[in-house]
Amino acid sequence: MEPTSLALAELPPVTAWLSDMDGVLVHENRALPGAQEFIDALREREIPFLVLTNNSIFTNRDLSARLARSGLEVPEDRIWTSANATAAFLAQQSPESSAFVIGEAGLTTALHGAGYIMTDQDPEYVVLGETRNYSFNALTHAIRLIEGGAKFIATNPDVSGPSDEGTLPATGSIAAMIQAATGRAPYFVGKPNPVMIRAGLNVIGAHSTTAAMVGDRMDTDVRAGVEAGLRTHLVLTGSTSREQIGRYPFRPFAVHEGIGDLIALLDGQAGAGD
Fold first, then answer.
1. Is 261 annotated for ligand binding?
2. Dist. CA 166–CA 68, nearest whole Å
3. Which CATH code of 3.10.270.10, 3.30.40.10, 3.40.50.1000, 3.60.40.10 fits the domain covering 16-54+191-268?
4. 76-93 pLDDT, tens digit each
5. What does UniProt list as catalytic (predicted)?
């Protein structure tokens, strides 16, 4: 697919890259073809990059180790999760405040790192993330805190996630339940909210005009990149097929069969696709 915006000659070179994780770099705990070569090429050229995921369960260190077991070496400081983005967002909105948190180590570690106090007594925020075991008592307490005036934040809008046994409810579906009980809608920080993208760019000192986003989903990755002002590259190794692209009111800058196809774009080119 040809680039859809300015002519290549009018575009500045891409000097920073953001990449989704699942469906782009890994699939079912295995590195996808070209993924390690793409990461290696970025590191060899000293190009700033981040690997993004809406998963808020794991810490960056945990995810780096999990990726290594999949055959992909990604340093923990080059991983950006919805938990990281949520912590950065809250630190900017209300520094060193307090939150009642439903989530696992990825979220609590990020919030502690941002200077937040975890409390179940009169917090400023209720923060909902993913967990393997949602507690009815914790959800009930969250509902009552929100009814009492706590602000409602959720790490991401994903409604389900995979497991070996089948589909699991995820943050978005639990948030919908809390919203139904309280009448208060959450603010979702993760993709497709461009807040997550912009916060990630700040981490690596990059600007949207010279950054690119690689993803496998039109509804989250490409949408977030478009709304943040990045050049978006869709790879066909994950959720979105070529036939589905035309269903959306926005388009990626370019489409590729897989992440390995983008290695040729790392040497100062504006970036075209097939």
1. no
2. 25
3. 3.40.50.1000
4. 999 999 999 999 999 999
5. 20, 22
